[in-house]
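Input (Ferredoxin):
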Amino acid sequence: MPDNPSGPKKIGKYTVTVDRVLCIGAASCIAVAPKTYALDNQAKAIFLDTAVEEAPEAIVDSAKACPVAAIIIHDESGKQIYP
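Output:
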């Protein structure tokens, strides 16, 4: 198990973090980007090793699908692009 299973994780041109305090385990991120996320034993989203196979658009869409905006995305320059 990685030290920080909820990130920050570099996925392609994005750095993605799941805020474990905000995450409610709705799993909408998994529905949108199933190669990127899973729920751990605390029902919090964690990253999968297959996240690099996901389309960048799916990563952004997964963050937008989160009902509590727990997925934070930064671009390669460090600028926050979502939320």
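The mean pLDDT is 95.
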